[in-house]
Amino acid sequence: MKNICMLATGGTIACRKGADGMRPSIAGQALAAHLPAMHEAAFDAVELFALDSSNLAPHHWQEMARAVAARREAYDGFIVTHGTDTMAYTAAALSIMLAHIDVPVVLTGSQLSVEEVGSDAQQNLQIAAHAAVSGRAGVFVAFGGQLIEGARARKLCTEQFAAFASIGAPAAALFHGGRLHWQKEWAAPKEPFHLRDALDTRVAVLKLVPGASAELLRALVNTGYRAVILEGFGAGGVPTDAAEESFIAALDYARSQGVTVIATTQCVYDGAHLSRYENGVLALRHGAVSGGAHTTEYLYAWAMAELGEHGCVRLSGTSGIA
Fold first, then answer.
1. What angle do CA 217, 223, 227 make, to 5 degrees?
2. Which end of the chain is more exposed for a tag (fewer CB within 10 A), N or C?
3. Arithmetic mean of pLDDT, 176-195
4. How many CA atoms lie within 13 Å of 315's alpha carbon, on the beta-carbon side?
5. Cα angle 246-307-149, degrees, rounded to a multiple of 5
6. Confidence class of residue 49 from pLDDT cuts 50, 70 and 90?
7. Cα distance between residue 84 and residue 156, in whole Å
8. Long-range contacts of 252-259 (CB under 8 A, 24+ apart)
């Protein structure tokens, strides 16, 4: 018999209609009653908070990570019920904060409340339960017939049940016929578990649009941000001196102030490739770091964890991201 802990945080899955629309109000214990009956598992429920995920902040990630760490030796796996809007951010953050986690931690939610007719909640809870008892260590998102690695999840749809995609790699597993079909071999972590719960929130995301002013980047530096995720065009490049509004001098300024600029792409798939075009090569030359194939959600949480734990953003590897 495996013991599984469900951590409830709110979201659509726990919503009922209120005076101003749907809001999380189904208690964690009541939500846990919708988990599938499994002869090999017993489920406990802990309610951390009841929030729309748009209202979650990095300190809520810390609470979730600490809740898992405090219970890790008492449970064989965890299910985190969560709103869909920022689930990819939380999944990325937990994949970083729960370093070398040796049990499954599975985030799930739904596009319709668990109490609505035709809801996708039951299937998603079923996927999450199977993943939680699987013994496959790591952080995952269970949604729409897929189990996705937490560091690769991104929400693509506001209403469709298959709302999330796995970016940069196939889904970890597919769910059909009442069981998980794993897409690749899964190995236990080689290093001991380490909780990285120190976060420095002085990280910003700046999405470029044609004609955007480089003063936006300077303003973020002057406001006190220590890292900026710069969502550039195409392969991740930025406007250069050939443009009416060049970002080159602003990149130099950010570097002179000790601010790390991580250049990534607005495209969903294939990642940033700054060494391909002149506008990427110049960005690198003037201090930008490539975000590689990582999602913005991952880069945002990773930079916070790096600054929180080390006081700086450590760089390594071909993409520059440790």
1. 60
2. N
3. 93
4. 13
5. 90
6. very high
7. 10
8. 252/286, 252/287, 253/217, 253/218, 253/221, 254/217, 254/218, 254/221, 254/228, 254/287, 255/286, 255/287, 257/221, 258/226, 259/220, 259/221, 259/225, 259/226, 259/227, 259/228
Q: Active-site residues: which are they?
A: 12
Name 87's bridge partners: none
Name every residue whose Cβ is closer than 8 Å to that of residue 59 and which is 6 or more positions away in sequence: 199
CB neighbours of residue 213 within 10 Å: 11
Band (pLDDT 50/70/90 cuts) for residue 187 is confident
| 317, pLDDT greater than 90 | no
pLDDT in tens, 87-144: 999 999 999 999 999 999 999 999 999 999 999 999 999 999 999 999 999 999 999 9
Instruction: State pTM to two decimals.
Output: 0.96
Q: Which residues of 259-295 are buried (b: 16+ CB within 10 A; e: fewer)?
A: bbbbbbbeeeeebbbbeebebbebbbebbbbbbbbbb
pLDDT tens track for 225-253 = 999 999 999 999 999 999 999 999 999 99
Strands 227-232 vs 41-51: parallel, antiparallel or unpaired = unpaired
Question: Strand 146-149 to strand 173-176: parallel, antiparallel, or no bridges (unpaired)?
Answer: antiparallel
Tokens 């975000």 -> residue: 291
Alpha carbons within 13 A on the beta-carbon side of 179: 4
Determine whether 187 is exposed, middle or buried from the number of CB atoms within 10 Å of its CB (0-12, 13-18, 19+).
Answer: exposed
Q: Are 23 and 52 in contact (CB under 8 A)?
A: yes
Q: Two tokens at 20? A: 């101003």
Strand order in the sheet with 227-232: 203-207, 227-232, 260-265, 289-290
Structure tokens at 19: 């005076």
Q: Tell me which H or E stretch contains 64.
A: helix 58-71
- Residue pair 80/108 in contact (Cβ under 8 Å)? The answer is yes
CB contact at 8 A, 77 and 103:
yes
